[in-house]
Design brief:
By secondary structure, this protein is an alpha+beta fold. Helix content is 26%, strand content 35%. The N and C termini lie far apart (63 Å).
């Protein structure tokens, strides 16, 4: 009789435990599209300006029609680009753009389980950008034209894995 009583008590306790676990589990809240877009926009910090302070010995010379992503220190990555006006004109002519000055965008891609990106508006054909990114992830940048909803890539950088 004692083993039967013990087995009954164990079954009752396990049943109560399973019931307690299933009632306390909550469904993950569903994010709406606006909140998701806001979170993606604020996931990266970047600084882009003509007066971006880079010491002359750190200046990276980029050959025409190239883009480079470099990680000289553990805290930041830097993007350098040099797009010639002739190359931009060639791309816009091939695509049939009527706009004399299309919107240039530097698109930062994070390669992880999901491919995420963030667009940074660019004013000049030649420039640099300081990026503060998450560690232990792979990144690359693409310089291109934003036409309403579509992004048209022109230059693609190398991939860099951000260290700690």
């Amino acid at each position: 009789m004692t083993p039967l009583l013990f087995i009954s008590i164990v079954i009752i306790v396990l049943t109560l435990l399973v019931y307690w676990v299933t009632t306390t589990i909550k469904e993950a809240p569903k994010e709406d599209k606006q909140e998701k877009d806001y979170n993606l926009r604020n996931a990266y910090r970047f600084e882009i300006a003509p007066e971006l302070a880079v010491a002359p010995e750190q200046e990276t010379i980029v050959s025409p029609n190239t883009i480079k992503l470099s990680g000289e220190d553990a805290a930041h990555l830097r993007a350098f680009w040099n797009l010639e006006r002739d190359r931009l004109q060639e791309v816009t002519d091939d695509l049939g753009f009527n706009n004399d000055s299309p919107d240039l965008v530097l698109r930062l891609y994070e390669s992880s389980d999901l491919l995420r990106y963030h667009d940074i508006q660019v004013e000049n054909l030649k420039g640099r950008c300081l990026l503060h990114l998450h560690p232990l992830k792979a990144y690359y940048v693409v310089l291109g034209i934003m036409d309403q909803k579509y992004f048209i890539p022109i230059l693609t950088s190398n991939t860099v894995i951000k260290q700690r």
